[in-house]
Amino acid sequence: MSKREQEQLGREQFVTKDSGEIHRLSILIPLYHSEQTIEALVDRVITELRPHFDALELVLVNDGSTDNTHACALQSVARHPGIVKYIRLMRNFGEHNAVMCGLHYVTGDCVAIIDDDFQNPPAEILKLVEKSREGYDVVYSYYTEKCHSWFRNLGSRFNDWVATKLLKKPKDLYLSSFKVISAPLIRTIIDYQGPYPYIDGIILRSTTMIGRQLCRHEERATGRSNYTLVKLLRLWLNMFTGFSILPLRIASIIGIGMAGVAILLTGFFIISHQVGGIIFQQPIPPGWASIIVAVTFFAGLQLCVLGMIGEYLGRLFLTVNRSPQFIVRDVYGIKTSQEES
């Protein structure tokens, strides 16, 4: 089944109900090196949540794992036929790309997105769903105490600050990966075609009906977080260049400021030359001041601004050339249109 057919199938299966009516729940779990947790997580989610909904589905997206995650996910599909869907990507595209892929396959009235590390107890999904019944398009979790490493907490704080400045995020809103999204908003999200999706950025520019719900946060069941400095930097870069032109405006302001500083330095060196180099205790060699002013300020500034413009142009080039958000290798537990007929 082609990607276009898969996307169309996902759109056709959406269930439209009045606001507040949630009878079918989809749960989306992006996977990356999840062999030690995914089977137990799937079993626990189904056991704890299935009695509360008319229909429950789990959508697993393997984001290019190189361990035994694929085999473990297949075991879950075989153990829970008709409930677990499994999509295997061709390579590692990143968490937000994997989530974007999974959103094309969910069919419920809303979808809960949860990580594979057990830090969010599955039963907490019920709190988010109950809050979403108040008419919110999305409900984010927040915590009184987060059980992340100091590095992850620091990265989260910086991400929160950047999102507040760039995306006009409400200051009291925490952009957690653990959230519930309504079907209408999902349709808006999957319409985004850029190769570098930032899910929370799409949400913030699409709706103001955003709720928040206090939830428990626990220690990881096993292993360490897959987030590294490189992945966090990539996430911030997606936020910077994909959903705001503020960095370009800042570059323009810095350029004007540096030009002003250069003018002041030029005046300073002229005055120093006129008074015989008293400031430097010796005459300034001819041409030295102009070289220092030009090289110190404008060379670095030009490289910075050109690099930023190049990043925007590069991403525009990739978008125009339809660089893929994700590439699906295999799907399991999902009936194709031919099989249904």
Automatic annotation (TrEMBL):
In this chain the Glycosyltransferase 2-like domain maps to 26-161
Any one GO BP annotation for this protein:
lipopolysaccharide biosynthetic process
Question: Gene3D superfamilies recorded for this chain?
Answer: Spore Coat Polysaccharide Biosynthesis Protein SpsA, Chain A (3.90.550.10)
Transmembrane regions listed in the UniProt entry: 248-271, 291-313
Q: Name one GO molecular function term.
A: undecaprenyl-phosphate 4-deoxy-4-formamido-L-arabinose transferase activity
Q: Which GO terms describe its cellular component?
A: plasma membrane
- Has the keyword Ion transport been applied to this entry? no
State the SUPFAM superfamilies in the record.
Nucleotide-diphospho-sugar transferases (SSF53448)
Q: What is this protein called?
A: Glycosyltransferase
Specify the species. Answer: candidate division KSB3 bacterium
Give the organism's phylogenetic lineage. Bacteria, candidate division KSB3
